Structures are given as C-alpha cells and as structure tokens.
Amino acid sequence: MRILVTGATGNVGRLVVDELLAAGASEVRALTTDPVRAALPPEVEVVEGYLGRVETLPRAFEGVDRMYLARLTRTVREVTELAREAGVTRIVDLAGTAGSWWYDVEKAVEHSGIPWTHLEAGEFMTNTTIWADQIRSRGEVREAYPRAANAPIALEDIAAVAAKALLEDGHEGAAYGLTGPEMLTRAELVAQIGKALGREIPLVEVSHADALADLTETMGADAAAWYLDGCAEMAEHPQPVSPTVSRVLGRPGMRFAEWAVAHASLFR
Ligand SMILES: NC(=O)c1ccc[n+]([C@@H]2O[C@H](COP(=O)([O-])OP(=O)(O)OC[C@H]3O[C@@H](n4cnc5c(N)ncnc54)[C@H](OP(=O)(O)O)[C@@H]3O)[C@@H](O)[C@H]2O)c1
Fold it and tell me: Which residue windows are transmembrane per the record (predicted)?
C-alpha cells in the first residue's frame, strides 16, 4: 500500500512521514518542491512537485493508494479530481469546518467521492512562538486577553492521528475535531513556558490596540488581527477539550507543559 504525503517538509507533513515510518509503513512517498533540500529519510520515495502546481501531480499520484492532503485551498478541486482519476482510495486531510479558511478543502475532498477522514485541528501549540521575540528581548509577554482559554494541540499528535487514519480502517467518513488534552488560559501558557525556561515570565495585560501593534511587528497586520480576534472570542467562549486524540491514539495527547520543555529552545 503506497501512501503519499503532500506538504512533506511542512510542520505537519514532515511529522506524518515520521509517524508512518515508525508504524512500519513500507511504501511512503513524499511530495516536495526540492528533494535535495527536503533531506527526507532514505526509506522514503521522494517525488518533486507541489499541490499548488497541479501539472506535477499525475506523476506523483501514480500508484498511490492513500494520501495525506496538506491545506491548500487554491487548487484543491483539481488536486482531488486528479487523485480520483489516479485511483487514490483514501484521503486524510488537514481541513477546517464551515466558516474556516480551510472549508474548501473539506468540500472538494467530499465532492471527489474518495473516502475521507477530515482532521479539524484547533490551535497549534507552536502558535505560542509568537511570544518568543518578546520573551527574548523584554523577558515578558504583553497580552490583551490573558484569560482567553482553549486546548492547543501538539503537531506531533495531529501527525499521529493522521497516520492512524491512513493506516487503519474505521476512520472513513469521520471529521475529527482535534485539541490538546487540557484547557489553558493564555496566562497559564506563558507560565508553563516560564517553567520550561526555569524563570518567571511576567504577563503584562495591554489593550487590544497595543497588542495589535506588538504582534504586527512579528506576524504582520492581518495575522495579528486574526489572532487577537480569536483571543477575544475565546475570552468570551473558552474552547473545550475534545476527547478524539486520546480515543484514536489510545493515549492522552501531549500536555503543554511537556511540549514547552521539549521545545524550550524556541524561546531561548
Ligand atoms: N491552527 C493553528 O493554530 C495553525 C497554526 C499555524 C499554522 N496553521 C496552518 O496549518 C497548516 C499546516 O502547516 P504546515 O507547516 O504543515 O504547512 P503545509 O501548508 O501543510 O505545507 C507546507 C509545505 O508545502 C510546500 N510548499 C511548496 N511550495 C510552497 C509555497 N509556494 N508556499 C507554501 N508552501 C509550499 C513546502 O514544502 P517543499 O518546499 O518541500 O515543497 C512546505 O514545507 C497550514 O495551512 C498553516 O497555515 C494552523
């Protein structure tokens, strides 16, 4: 059974490759624009291409049974049609529900008629790296919504669920809402990063406008506005934990405290 991982050097796709290999998958193919730079493990078959350049896909899809589909809305209709023509029999996509930026991925996958599993991941733990510059330069975090709460997820867990859905039966037709194992406020996330670094990181509450100005420097204006609007919403309506990761993996998802220790170098 040949499995194609698209976006194979991306933050999620690269981990999906590792999870598939660890689970013993023997025919893993990876799609990348630059096979040399990608430096994928030697047991992976590397194919040059990109979801955004659909002319590269017929060759990449040849002989593929199952596919991890990275998020790219612009070409997803053509991508899924080409996958159907090539005989792909299962798609596991990183998508999003109606109203999200990535809903077009789910719509196109379902429209193709190929059996699917949607992974609807909530906020990634890696998003907390937006504070890394402030922690390094000022030793503090300026936040507008310290009580905003949700259950961020580790990329490692998204990839592990993706690999299960690619390799095991019984996940077809499921739209998995994926979160981490505990609901935490922004203030608790900052405190956990401080613990991982071995020092207290003061959280300074600032206005929405001041936080926007700070974050625009690191994220750009659109992403900063999107992030802060999301925090304002979470302050009013905290996002609860979904049990799906532990149900699918048979173990709890990674806790933020563990993640912060494992990735402390991102904040140093
Ligand atoms: N929910 C959240 O909190 C959250 C947080 C951060 C990100 N996200 C989203 O989660 C998704 C997963 O992220 P990901 O890092 O795994 O990325 P991805 O979009 O799944 O894949 C990125 C890969 O696509 C390939 N690529 C080729 N040409 C590209 C181009 N012109 N532009 C961009 N990528 C190109 C690159 O690999 P090659 O160069 O090897 O081809 C790159 O490594 C993204 O859609 C991201 O926006 C969500």
Answer: none
